[in-house]
Amino acid sequence: MSQIIGHMLNSAFVDTLDNDLEFLRDMNEVLDFVLKKLNCLRFHPVEK
To answer: Is pTM, for the whole model, over 0.85?
Structure first.
């Protein structure tokens, strides 16, 4: 019984990691797109 519960928890944890990785990849694509658009508009980050 404990092995079954262990497999269920492991499966849920791995699924969550997969979703997190997919979200991060999507956000990286969005950030690349935004940065390219900002460069086209000649905006540059301001350094402190």
So the answer is: no
